[in-house]
Design brief:
182 residues; mainly alpha; Four Helix Bundle (Hemerythrin (Met), subunit A); two-stranded antiparallel sheet; two-stranded antiparallel ribbon; 6 helices
Length: 182
């Protein structure tokens, strides 16, 4: 069991997911319906990026790692058909998506991820998870956590870039502490 400042590995993952969720939502804070639906060309719209990253976390954490019912089966995720693993740029152009409901679904997914992580300990980290449908075969639960985290980070970057195409600041502004300016 790895310890970091007396934290278990699960506690570190829980912290990391919390930080990623905060960063995604801060990046999405000023995204309007029009901004979300802007078509940048080849990459999916912000709406598609956001739906993909949220539904992927729901699938990876709740279904694959947790062996639980996905949040989208218990609430209105804002869409009728979930984004496919690939081709979700086209999905975003054709699927009717309710951004307000999608944002509420995201909050429920984040809460479910946190609740799951709060319910397990480091003994689960090497448990095998079957990811054959994605071509990965059997992987440890740690790989599922890293995939969900990196997916959130990567698509937050895509959202930020697409906001930039529209003349908006991408990532949220962060106040620099006085001590750091010296």
């Amino acid at each position: 069991m790895m310890k970091d400042n007396n934290r278990t590995t699960i506690e570190v993952f829980r912290f990391m997911f919390g930080q990623v969720h905060e960063y995604i939502e801060a990046t999405m804070a000023d995204v309007t319906e029009t901004v979300a639906r802007y078509e940048p060309g080849r990459p999916a719209s912000i709406l598609g990026q956001y739906a993909h990253l949220v539904s992927s976390e729901d699938w990876l954490i709740n279904i694959k790692a947790g062996n639980n019912t996905p949040v989208m089966a218990q609430t209105n995720p804002g869409f009728q058909n979930p984004p496919p693993p690939v081709g979700w740029d086209e999905w975003a152009r054709t699927e009717a998506v309710d951004l307000v409901a999608l944002r509420a679904y995201a909050q429920e997914v984040y809460a479910a991820t946190d609740a799951y992580l709060a319910s397990v300990d480091d003994s689960c980290l090497n448990d095998p998870v079957d990811m054959s449908e994605m071509g990965f075969g059997m992987v440890p639960t740690t790989a599922i956590f890293m995939l969900a985290l990196s997916n959130g980070c990567l698509h937050c970057g895509e959202i930020s870039a697409i906001k930039g195409f529209q003349g908006l600041p991408g990532y949220p502004a962060v106040a620099v502490p006085e001590a750091a300016r010296r």
